[in-house]
Amino acid sequence: MPGGAGIGRYLAKKTAFLIITFFIVITINFFLPRLMPGSPADYLVRDPAITTEERMRLLKQFGLDKGLLTQYVLYIKNVLRGNLGLSFRYYPTPVWDVIMSRLPWTIYLLGISYSVATLIGVILGAYAAWRRKTKFDSAMVSMAFVTRSMPVFWLGMLLLYLFGAVLGWFPLSGAVTPGVHHATFLGFALDVLRHSVLPMTTIILFLIGPPLLLTRSLVADSLTEPYVDASRAKGLPPRMILFKHALRPVSLPLSTYTAILMGYVVGGAVFTETVFSWPGVGKLIYEAIMRRDYPLIQGSFLIITISVLLANFLVDLIYAYIDPRVRLG
Amino acid sequence: MSLLKERLGELSYVMRHSRQAMLGLALILFLFVLALGAGFLAPYNPKALSGNPYEPPSHRHPLGTDDVGHDILSQLIYGSRTSLLVGILSAFGCIAIGVIVGLMAGYAGGLTDELLMRLTDIVLVIPYIVFVIVLVAYLGPSIWNIILSISVLGWPSIARMVRSHVLSLKSSLYVEAARSMGAGGGYIMSKHILPGLIPLILPIYVLTVMDGILTEAGLSFLGLGDPTRPSWGILLYYAQIRGAFVRRLWWWVLPPGLMITIAGLGFLLLGSSLEEYFNPRLRQR
Fold this sequence. Notes:
The complex is a heterodimer. By secondary structure, chain A is mainly alpha-helical. Chain A has helices spanning 4-31, 40-44, 52-61, 68-80, 95-130, 135-149, 152-166, 185-222, 226-233, 238-246, 251-260, 262-276, 281-290, 294-322, 324-327. The radius of gyration of chain A is 24 Å and the shape is globular. Chain B has a domain at 72-253: MetI-like (MetI-like fold), CATH 1.10.3720.10. Chain B is elongated, with a radius of gyration of 22 Å. At the A-B interface, helix 1, helix 6, helix 7, helix 12 and helix 13 of A face helix 5, helix 6, helix 10, helix 11 and helix 12 of B.
């Protein structure tokens, strides 16, 4: 197969980066509680909720009575086994279980909002480039600017205030109506959907600006290319020119860019989930901070970072598949 | 020197004729007036119990009072100080680290470049906001820890841009000419590379101020703001946890977010019009 070596080297490089970053993130996590005054034991196991017996077991498990190196080795071993300690707030539930019960909610919320925001952003951006210097164009640019400088939690608060508190169209918090048992899955899904409208709208508005502006400037560039003139001369309808010809070369820089955006997306989730009391990992970090639940803060940070790392790795794989320069070496 | 004067003249001409830049400057100016004149403009000491809890807007308290009886308008006015301080200083920090890393990587090349760029990639891939939140949660919520955390984590994208700019400057003809006439590394660095970076850094600085302001607001909203200083994010934090929604206290929810948006928009508008000016490829369109 031509160029098989090129893609092999590319994948090896990306995998090495993934593994190295993974260990660096674990190391950062290990040192966080050790940056603070006092013993790490104060931050990891000393909570009134934890029984003396349990505390002794945790101290031994994480080697907190031993030297730094032993502690580090034990920490890595424990993390690799999924042992992130016990949450103070949800004692005696392990941090791992607390996070895993929340993760699906965040993936659902972010997955849909992120895809919708990117899709709408690209379409609006492409039309804005097509209709440069018109009212539509400047309205799109203004919207992108305002949503970029607006704090996402305030945007959420405004939507919540207007559509939740004043108009009463949507529920004020959570992902499901508390205390209601749905007989069918459809009933449950509809309930979740009703709760999702406002948080999803918030994240979509928060995320729409960057893909819109990027597509607008990339398409404006590609519209000046000869092949676009050629397709115009052939008499293709505008929509065909825009979405089949002008948008195609844009897809690669756009996909790199959306990968860079991943961290930004996750930040939006922390704030939006907090405003809407959405039971995801973002809200969990907030709860953990309020309760000074250090094992949970650390655990959430670790899991969120690893999720983003894996998502980026996935984008790299897709990239290798779609970019001929990588595929053919 | 006359060249610099000419460039500055051109810059100010372009800025004066850009509605976007002027609006941005006006918003920023407004914030500085609030911050510097807070002592005269604010009706009360923001930390004083100047009224009853949950007072609606009135002549005495134009934007009402919060859950303990602080005047909201005064907190709003003093909040501009915190915001600008964090924005300006943290952007300095990010730029300083970003420029040093980018310069070293771009100029030295080889292994130094490789190592610094991998470090940059690693910091870049860790979700920024979450990392800042966790760092401040551990270091403790003081304004200096907030500035430090933003600076330590906000530099990677700047370092990347600086590096690629240095690479293109390094291979430019005038630097090659200087080198062929025997100019040393230090001379080229101070006479050609650093001045060549200014057009790149100026817009980035302004945009980084915006990021710093938004980050401070976000941290404060999560309860990680400096409790000794009035801040827009902290106002919203209390509005959120003390039931401003259920009581429908719009005067407590609306103004702080509006101030953050004004601040963000001001620096975003100015920064992106500077970027357009310094990047002529974008300017033609």
